[in-house]
Design a protein that fits this description.
Elements: H1 2-7, H2 12-22, E1 26-29, E2 39-42, H3 45-54, H4 63-68, H5 81-95, H6 98-126, E3 130-131, H7 132-149, H8 158-176, H9 179-188, H10 191-221, H11 230-235, H12 250-281, H13 283-296, H14 306-318, E4 324-327, E5 333-334, E6 340-341, E7 347-350, H15 351-354, H16 358-361, H17 401-418, E8 419-423, E9 444-449
Parallel strand pairs: 2-7
Antiparallel strand pairs: 1-2, 3-9, 4-7, 5-6, 8-9
The protein binds protoporphyrin IX containing FE.
The site of protoporphyrin IX containing FE (HEM) has 22 residues, from helix 5, helix 12 and helix 17.
Protein name: Cytochrome P450
Cofactor: heme
Binding site for heme: 398
Length: 451
């Protein structure tokens, strides 16, 4: 089956969705003999609930995942078992720290007022074409960087952006290649594996500077301030409580914070890019959001913007920023769909396909309809996470979900209130085969003031 898959790489996500639909939501992919590329693909909500929630302990990400994501080292994204537990619990305390939330709101507000609005203002006056995806990536990188390291990168770090994109694409292709092949390519430094090595050097350089200056600050301040950024928090981690954390080891701090930084930058910028792309094709949805902002906007309570929330949820259903997840059973098992899975085998859950299944979402699954998220009484409809898996489900649910939604709403409201975008005609809007759903050549638009 590998040649069929490789042939369809340019339209991988749509192809994999069609295959799921034709195979009743679950199918076994067979690669060449002994290549180690056999995988079970499933988007059956019963199987998802079984693996991610009710039998969570039997479904770690597995040793192969750790190899594929080796660039993230001991960060939470690739961790399993006891280390994951320590990272999750300590991360939970950080993400629920009042000062951390305050830092998110203050950094987003100042980045909006000082950088994004003046930038869009200039683009509208000079009538220049901008790449909205690139703008959101820089914006999210700067705010995520303030939150995670305490430093504002001032959108200058194109080097980090490129390194992140190469990493995410290389990790996608590693899923399809025998381990021995991509490890050899990495060793001799060819193709995309050469780029992942360069990316690793970029991350190491950047974190070496940040960690050493944060350590110096900690030593000179002498007293323990309440932590607000992730680096400072992990430098002061309580090892009596979290036994597997290593606050004095720079490499460990780099791994932990790099995962958080990537989780924060690329997901929200992907979600906003696809959201504005869909709005440009659905002017009625745009007018409804504008109307809601006019009548219900309260900067201290963005939850009141029910239709905006519905439109964001609907956009991420069709274009989930993290398009797939990977599991590997610790012991053999039988899934609720009846498929037998062996210990250490690979299981892939494709969120992109799940959001498009007619048997899960109805005949209009492919349509962009925020209304499907609104109840008759005007409230928000909640869907089980085994059906709406955009933020993952069970004990490994996304830790930044509430921060991400808050930040995306702040950005969306500011832009929608003040600007109109016109998408430059003739662009091909296709997702890149990657572990983050980006548009291959970005989203080129012109900007005008909304008067
Ligand atoms: C629209 C935005 C976002 C989406 C769609 C999203 C989605 C996800 C998904 C699907 C996972 C599971 C990944 C896996 O297990 O392989 C995840 C995990 C995670 N996310 Fe998010 N995320 C978003 C934003 C954020 C932000 C802004 C942060 C941090 C500030 C964040 C922090 C995390 C962390 C720490 C995990 C790991 C949780 C664990 O393994 O226990 N996410 N996210």
């Amino acid at each position: 089956m590998l040649p069929g898959m490789l042939f369809n790489i340019p339209r991988f996500f749509d192809w994999i969705s069609e295959v799921h639909e034709a195979n009743d939501l679950t199918f076994a992919f067979k690669g060449p003999w002994f290549s180690g590329t056999d995988m079970l693909f499933t988007v059956d909500p019963r199987n998802i609930n079984h693996m991610l929630s009710s039998n969570f302990s039997n479904y770690p990400k597995g040793p192969e995942f750790k190899k594929i994501f080796d660039i993230l080292g001991d960060g939470i994204v690739a961790a399993d078992m006891e280390l994951w537990e320590d990272l999750r619990k300590s991360g939970h305390a950080l993400f629920h720290h009042q000062n951390f939330l305050k830092l998110l709101v203050s950094s987003t507000t100042s980045k909006l007022n000082d950088d994004l609005v003046p930038f869009l203002e200039k683009a509208s006056v000079e009538n220049i074409v901008i790449d909205l995806q690139d703008v959101f990536q820089r914006f999210m990188f700067d705010t995520a960087s303030i939150l995670m390291t305490g430093y504002d990168q001032m959108s200058l770090s194109t080097e980090f952006g490129e390194a992140a994109e190469f990493t995410e694409e290389a990790i996608f292709y590693r899923h399809l290649k025998p381990v021995i092949l991509w490890r050899f390519q990495n060793f001799i430094g060819v193709g995309i594996e050469r780029k992942i090595r360069t990316a690793s050097e970029v991350f190491n350089r950047m974190f070496a500077k940040i960690i050493s200056s944060r350590r110096k600050e900690e030593m000179s301040s002498g007293k323990k301030e309440p932590a607000i950024n992730a680096v400072t928090y992990y430098l002061n981690a309580d090892t009596a409580k979290y036994k597997l954390l290593k606050p004095s080891n720079d490499e460990f701090i780099r791994d932990v914070v790099l995962s958080l930084l990537l989780a924060g930058r690329d997901t929200s910028s992907s979600a906003l890019t696809w959201f504005f792309w869909l709005l440009s094709n659905h002017p009625k949805v745009m007018s409804k959001i504008r109307q809601e902002i006019k009548t219900n906007f309260d900067p201290t309570d963005l939850e009141k913007l029910v239709y905006l929330h519905a439109a964001l949820s609907e956009s991420m259903r069709l274009y989930p920023p993290v398009p797939f997840n990977h599991k590997s059973p610790a012991k053999s098992d039988v899934l609720p769909s009846g498929h037998k899975v062996e210990a250490d085998s690979k299981i892939v859950i494709c969120m992109y396909a799940l959001g498009r299944m007619r048997s899960v979402w109805g005949e209009d699954a492919l349509d962009f309809k925020p209304e499907r998220w609104i109840l008759e009484n005007g409230g928000l409809k909640r869907e089980p996470s085994s059906k709406y898996l955009v933020f993952n489900a069970g004990p490994r649910t996304c830790m930044g979900k509430h921060l991400a939604l808050l930040q995306m709403k702040m950005v969306a409201v500011e832009i929608i209130q003040n600007y109109d975008f016109k998408v430059v005609e003739g662009q091909k809007i296709d997702p890149v085969p990657s572990v983050i759903l980006r548009i291959k050549h970005g989203l080129k638009v012109t900007v005008s003031k909304n008067i």
